[in-house]
Amino acid sequence: MSEVVVRQAGEVTGWLAEQVGRLVPQLSSTAAVPSLEQLADIASSPGSVLFLAFLSETAAGAPSTDLAGMLTLVTYRIPTGLHAVIEDVVVDENLRGGGAGSALVKAALVEATRRGARNVDLTSRPTREDANRLYTKLGFVKRETNVYRYSLTGG
Question: Which of 94, 107, 121, 93 is CA-nearest to residue 50?
Answer without folding.
Answer: 107
